[in-house]
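Re: the request from the purification team.
They wanted to know what the chain is likely to look like in 3D before they choose a buffer screen. I agreed to run a prediction and write the result into the notebook, where they can find it.
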Amino acid sequence: MVGRSVRVRLRPRIWHKLAVIGLAFMLPLTVSGYLLANENGRRIAFSQDELRGLEYLRPLGTLLVDLGQHKTLSWQVLSGDRPVAQLREYEARVDSRPR
């Protein structure tokens, strides 16, 4: 029996099986954790952009009110109901707004 080859069968040990199972569960968990962190970063950036927009719009709201009052006052000045000095006051207020 000289030509007979000996086959050694490697049996997977328990720690090999556990390592494969652990890796199989870690891959989807890692991917979903990455996607969750990425989405949270986008939401935080969007919220910061909205806060910047509100800071920009807040002075514009008061400017819009002042422009409406200026328009009303200018009609009253043209009709002779109000003095021109009040109109100049509103013009100075509108012109002093930050740009």
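For the purification team: The first helix runs from residue 14 to 79.
Please add any questions underneath this entry.
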